[in-house]
Structure prediction request, 774 residues.
Amino acid sequence: MRSRTRSLLCLAPLALLLASAPAAALSPEAAEAEHTRLTEEMRKLAKRNAWHGVEKQYQSMLDLQKDGVVLTYEDHMKGAEAARELGRITDVYNRLQSARVQQKGEEVRSWLREIESNYGMALLVRDDRYSGDTELAPSAMPFDPAKRAAIGAAQQALVDEGRYEGLLPHGDYTFGGKPFVVVEGQELPPEVILAPEGSNTRRLAQAPRRNGLRFQVGPGFANVGDTYSDSAVGFQPTEGRSGGLLRAALGGSLQLGDSPAGLMVEAGYHGMFPDTVAGTGAEDVNIVVGEGFQAASADATARMNLFFVQAGPTLWLGRVEVAAAVGWAIGGISLVSPVACANPSDSASNCSGPLTDVPDEIGGTLKAPGGSLGLTWLPKALDFKMGRGTYGAGLGLQGGLWRDDARSYPWGQLALTLTPTTSSN
Amino acid sequence: MILAASLALALGGPAEAAEVPVSADGHAINPTWSKDGKWLAFEVNQYEGSVDLYVVQVENGQAMGSPRKVEVPGSSSSFASGGSIAAGAVWHPEGTLIFEGSSSGTDSRLYFWSPGGARASQLLSASQIGGDLTWPTITADGGTLAFVSDSTGDGDIYTWKQATNEVANAAKSGFSEMAPRFNKDGSSVAYSRKNQGGEDLFVLSGGSSVPRIGGNGDQSRPNWADGGAVVFFTNERGDQRWDIGVSRGPGDKKTIAKDVRLPLRAAPSLSDDGRWVAWGTSVPEKAGKIYVTRVDGSKTVELSTGLVAAGEPSLVTAGGRTWLAYTALPSDTAAWRQLHIMDITGKVP
Prediction:
């Protein structure tokens, strides 16, 4: 049961990635039928002012474009309405541009003009280290619900992510008590960065900080190496074993200053699946000195259940994270060696087992230092918001080595990784 | 009773008026001017379950281009089965429009629309206030909106303040309230309340509602006139016999116009200075005329339209001119009421 559970856990990262992967391509006819269905759903939801639902349908429609569906003018206009109700004016503008490609009517032109003449860009950043007032406040809340929603969305983005870069209605504002104004025709959008003295505000303006939780899980392979040839007797058996690995770790990442480098620390589980070699293991047998024994068929197994902590540097290169770590593992390990001979009366045989007084089973606590290196690709399409941060999800290759006085324990892993990222990556 | 001193000035012939071209089938009703006189909102009603709201830009009394339909979200689609209502428009002093709207099977909500801009958007979310929202009215400075919600089962009057984005119950009772209207400085709200089969007028001021006018029949759709007077429609003489009354204080009532053609939705239309009220008549032989009466009842000006069953008047003074919008049938056999604009500058002292 335990091994079945581990097997299922091994598949979990793959399932997660498959679930987040784009759906299989539809035929043109099926895609168009789905488009029609989504159009009707959008209309019904819009009637009820259920704009989150309309937004969801619009996003589904966008996915259909890869199947050859061409969104209509009305699709994009409904998407623009949804974005407006949700306060995402920048999305409104972009969707109106898409609508205009389909139909250059007065309605879309006038709506674009209205945005251009009533909104302007602003960049507001709140560094996590800043301890002062961080409220965004207009001098007067507008009557227009779309403008109120845009201000509300900006306020929420600043609370959630510490950053807002987008459109705000024209007017006077304060951010953290610092005044700024958004006006028509401004050459440079206003920037207000709330950060401790001496911070690299230019860098802060470009990217939020990569601080937060990190999580890795995935299957791989692990090896209990052959005993070192110079190791003391008593560390038998000498022959190593390989098996499946389930490894998971939870920790945190911290960006170093405003650089692409950081530090990570994590703790986790490193478990090797039993490697079973049928029919060659030893069982307890009655031993009478001087008499032979009959080796019974049994399985040779090796298993590890380690817990580890490790820490090390990380480096972001675009959408790839490189992470190295050193740490310490502790846990249980057991190996049962195969019996080398079946007939102890055959003195020419090279036997092990109870008759030879050579332990055929070792077990106990493993304590070993080690290191690891990982390379993870985190596609931007899988970024998601959690709490106040932005996180990336991706697949990576990890590998490393534990080592004690008796042997080495190398491992390799294909890991699903969740780690803080930034919108600028 | 109309004062003996009232003077009807019958003009020599129909006053010059411009028709607003409306291509849609249906009666044009409830014209409502923007404060600056540059926009005119009106409804088109086919009496088949849908009421459409249109807006037209006006310059020198002439419609500029075709009226534009203002749609309730979700109402327009090849799948739409009709039944949408967009009506009861009021203009914000900044030139934007607030109206009540619903699609088939949905609650009536309040919507916001900006001329020349985006599609209408919901003004107040369901989380702010639930139920059917109707009868929007706004203070002269645009800072406070009053409306009716039936979220408690009865129609109650609520207010929403722009500065705080907060909705508050302004007048709650066990009866249905409707047709709220702010006075000039926004300190008081006149409204009507259903009571034993009729409607009575109340004034909400300082958090308290004071009865203003009761009596036989309905005293309905109040509007504030000069000097704190409240002008309203009353059918105290019988169900289909509507008059215009004026009240200058609790219990005070005087009739200044009789046999009025009751508008479908609007309150009595007052001039910008609050001294004149415009009305159409239900008297058949006079039905082609629009009357403008002083609120004190001392004078009435008669305006001939040359049309049939003129009514639904709306007054605005802008750019030194006074404009009257009204609807009328082109002829006795015409199917639909059309919308017209008349310059009455100088005709109403």
